[in-house]
Amino acid sequence: MYKHINILLILISFCLxxxxxxxxxxxxLNNVPLPPLTSxxxxxGTIRYHGSIDQETRxxxxxxxxxxxxxxxxxxxxxxxxxxxSPDPNTFLGKWKQKQEVTVTTKNGTETIYTIELSDYKxxxxxxxxxxxxxxxxPLDRKKWVPFYFERKKGEAxxxxxxxxxxxxxxxxxxxxxxxxxxxxxxxxxVQTLGKFCFTFGKVEIRARVTRHPDGNFPAIxxxxxxxxxxxxGINTNPISGEIDIMEHVKQENCIHQTVHSNYTFNLExxxxxxxxxxxxxxxxYNLYGMEWNADEIIFYVNxxxxxxxxxxxxxxxxxxxxxxxxxxxxxxxxxxxxxGDTGSWAGAVDDANLPAIMEVDYVKVSxxxxxxxx
Length: 375
Known about the structure:
mainly beta, 16-stranded antiparallel sheet, five-stranded mixed sheet, 24 strands, disordered N terminus
């Protein structure tokens, strides 16, 4: 019996020692400090590219991405909710360099600098033909933009436009486009590159969000011809010379619209091939709205994902039906605006009490079309 008791005591002691050792080991592991930055990834459309983090050199390496302008989002994890990162990596969108530095600051004030490197980066600046990131607060660059606002009395058509930065200006790294009411007059902010910049064939990428959208709001990112190939004389109405709507939003819809207009689609009302689409997206937050135009087709994108292709049918009676006013002989300019609807219009009646309506644009970039860039 004493032998059995001794064995039992030995087993209990062994279990206690094992428990203490396990507890000590867990404590030691728990006391090992986690690194300030524990994960980092970028997104291209829906695909994530995860960075390899070397915690000794504080270097984050991301491979596979040659063109940094295709990056649409950034995801990262810090040591805890009280840590911060500066600058916000999302501010690099549209402005990525081969190497970027960020500083992670922990709760106790310790700062750790990480270098983020795109290992397969290729310099693309030679392909960019127009760019503005609105990083200087105040009036817009008049070498690039014509800023103004339209005036419209309630219940009447637009009656004049005033060249001004009052309703379109740069603030906190964004172009701010605003529509508001002053007495009984609506003032609708708009910028365009007419007379400053136009192009034939290219890829447009504009990162924007609609931060205030009362009923009647009508923000738009679109293009019109500075050098039309079909004059309007003798034809019912525009847009016979072509219109490319990269983004339009109306009412409180949970989507944006992308559309190609021409005499063929607008006046003749031929919708085959399909010339418009709506894309469900969180328009209140930043999205990358894109369009690529070449001799064969116009392709729309949202956040790097293709949404619609509209082809050049090369019809034998093109000069009569005017399906493709987007030829190499034409040239288009950019328009960005916050407009307002009216009773009976597509955008609907305006909720005056909740104005202003505001769209913010992080950057505008136009580059050579992909097919041309590959040659």
